[in-house]
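Try this one yourself first.
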C-alpha cells in the first residue's frame, strides 16, 4: 500500500517543495535588493560578515552570467543564517520604500499645484501671499508662457520651469 505524506497527520514532514522554492526566491530577491543598496546604508543593516564579504565580491563582478551565478551563491550564504539576522536589512528596505512614497507624494502635490496655477489666478495670489519674497513678475511671465505652450503644442519649457520653481519654494519651507 502506497502512503502519501498526508496519510499520517501525526508526522511533521516540514515545508512542501513549493514553499521551499518560495522561501528561496524570497531570499534571492532580498539578496539582489541588498546588493543595490549604497554602502552607507548597507553598513547600517547589521549583516553577518560573510554576507557583507560576498556582497562586496559580487559588486566587483561585471559579467552578467557570472554576476547572476554569484547572486545565487550570496542567497545560499544568506540561507545559512537565521531569518532574524536580516531583520535590520528588511526594516531598512521598508524604510527606503516609505521614503520613496513620501517623495513621490510631494512631487504629485507639486504637479497638482502647477496645474492649478495654470487654471486659476486665485491660486497664484495664494502662492504670492504664502511666499511674499517670490519674484511675482517672473512667475506671472512663466505662467503666461506655459499657457501659450500648452495651447500651441510647443515644447513645454516654462511648464517645467514652474515645477522647478515650486520645488525650490517647498524645499525652503522644509
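Now uncover the answer:
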Amino acid at each position: 500500500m502506497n502512503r502519501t505524506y498526508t496519510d499520517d497527520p501525526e508526522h511533521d514532514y516540514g515545508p512542501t517543495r513549493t514553499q521551499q522554492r518560495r522561501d528561496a526566491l524570497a531570499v534571492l530577491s532580498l539578496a539582489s535588493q541588498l546588493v543595490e543598496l549604497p554602502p552607507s546604508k548597507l553598513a547600517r543593516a547589521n549583516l553577518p560578515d560573510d554576507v557583507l564579504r560576498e556582497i562586496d565580491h559580487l559588486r566587483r563582478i561585471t559579467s552578467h552570467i557570472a554576476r547572476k551565478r554569484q547572486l545565487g551563491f550570496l542567497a545560499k550564504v544568506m540561507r545559512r543564517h537565521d531569518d532574524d539576522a536580516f531583520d535590520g536589512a528588511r526594516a531598512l528596505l521598508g524604510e527606503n520604500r516609505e521614503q520613496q512614497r513620501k517623495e513621490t507624494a510631494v512631487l504629485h502635490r507639486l504637479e497638482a499645484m502647477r496645474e492649478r496655477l495654470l487654471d486659476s489666478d486665485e491660486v497664484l495670489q495664494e502662492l504670492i501671499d504664502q511666499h511674499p519674497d517670490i519674484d511675482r513678475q517672473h512667475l506671472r511671465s512663466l505662467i503666461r508662457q506655459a499657457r501659450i505652450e500648452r495651447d500651441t503644442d510647443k515644447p513645454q519649457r516654462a511648464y517645467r520651469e514652474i515645477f522647478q520653481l515650486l520645488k525650490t519654494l517647498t524645499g525652503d519651507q522644509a
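Discussion: The mean pLDDT is 86. The radius of gyration is 27 Å.
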